[in-house]
Amino acid sequence: MNATTTDAVPAIELRGVTQRFRTPSGGVHTALHDLDMTVAPGEFCAVVGPTGCGKSTTLSLISGLKAASAGRTLLHGEPVTSLDRRVGFMFQTDAAFPWRTVLDNVAAGPRFRGVSRRDAVAGARDWLRRVGLSGFEDRLPHQLSGGMRKRVALAQTLINEPEILLMDEPFSALDVQTRQIVQDELLGLWELTRPAVVFVTHDLEEAIALADKVVVLTVGPGTVKDTFTIDLPRPRRVQEIRFDARFVALYERIWTSLRDEVRLAYARSAGADPGAPTKDATPSPATATTATGFSAPSEPATTPSDDAEVH
Ligand SMILES: Nc1ncnc2c1ncn2[C@@H]1O[C@H](COP(=O)(O)OP(=O)(O)OP(=O)(O)O)[C@@H](O)[C@H]1O
């Protein structure tokens, strides 16, 4: 059973959110348009959508790093006005200080919050044990494998016991086998404290394996196209769940929704005719990363590159 509290005040609520940015030429680029999304306390929500559709922008709004041009962003019913300590992040790139040991990196968050060094170090040791890195406390980040560095990142984030966890393609740089192991570890750790999660990924298989629901965004300006409930039982093992017939059925349904957006985004960036016939066979889950990662060649020519938000 998925033990989310769907009748409670949402942990995260985006209502009619629009985000505009000013372009270098003085125009306005709309990244998100009238986006509605909720995540219940303890719910694991994955967000998929074509490149440039506004997934990372959505995370920035939830985190308080950006303020929306229009609409409302609420955490536990309260408007987001700034960075919130209840929110934890994990990004594609590691956030470890390269000159600090693993132990000090994990203890850094509690230290920053005013926890005594002794307690912060004890907590860091405990989290390193949970992520399977006991014995590696004195290593520097570059002395670890990619998978180990992700475990450090998990410990760094989860030691702060966030009520809301935002993850932006955190495992995309890992090889497939390591990624699956770390995904399983994430699920196990998530079960311990059950933060509400928004997990952005280009990998539809990853989204389904991890999440309680998958939100599909449209091609930019992004808005919610579809939301799919993932009613697969927990606890899950990601290496095994993808062979479940229900997983395959979900994959096909979600890919059908995502496919048109992917095709449109690709056509835009390639300057091609989006109506032109393309191969649209449903990729097998085994080829999910390639199929939905759709490394479409960068941004459309009109894409802004400055950092100016428009309100
Ligand atoms: N600070 C900014 N200033 C101007 N434009 C921006 C800014 N941040 C994002 N954009 C634009 O807004 C759109 C959405 O960007 P965003 O990074 O949220 O997309 P995404 O879905 O996360 O992309 P990807 O899947 O490629 O990581 C893009 O067209 C991007 O160029």
Automatic annotation (TrEMBL):
<dbReference type="InterPro" id="IPR003593">
    <property type="entry name" value="AAA+_ATPase"/>
</dbReference>
<keyword id="KW-0813">Transport</keyword>
<feature type="domain" description="ABC transporter">
    <location>
        <begin position="12"/>
        <end position="244"/>
    </location>
</feature>
<dbReference type="Pfam" id="PF00005">
    <property type="entry name" value="ABC_tran"/>
</dbReference>
<feature type="compositionally biased region" description="Low complexity">
    <location>
        <begin position="276"/>
        <end position="298"/>
    </location>
</feature>
<dbReference type="InterPro" id="IPR017871">
    <property type="entry name" value="ABC_transporter-like_CS"/>
</dbReference>
<dbReference type="InterPro" id="IPR027417">
    <property type="entry name" value="P-loop_NTPase"/>
</dbReference>
<dbReference type="InterPro" id="IPR050166">
    <property type="entry name" value="ABC_transporter_ATP-bind"/>
</dbReference>
<feature type="region of interest" description="Disordered">
    <location>
        <begin position="270"/>
        <end position="311"/>
    </location>
</feature>
<keyword id="KW-0067">ATP-binding</keyword>
<protein>
    <submittedName>
        <fullName>ABC transporter ATP-binding protein</fullName>
    </submittedName>
</protein>
<dbReference type="GO" id="GO:0005524">
    <property type="term" value="F:ATP binding"/>
</dbReference>
<keyword id="KW-0547">Nucleotide-binding</keyword>
<dbReference type="InterPro" id="IPR003439">
    <property type="entry name" value="ABC_transporter-like_ATP-bd"/>
</dbReference>
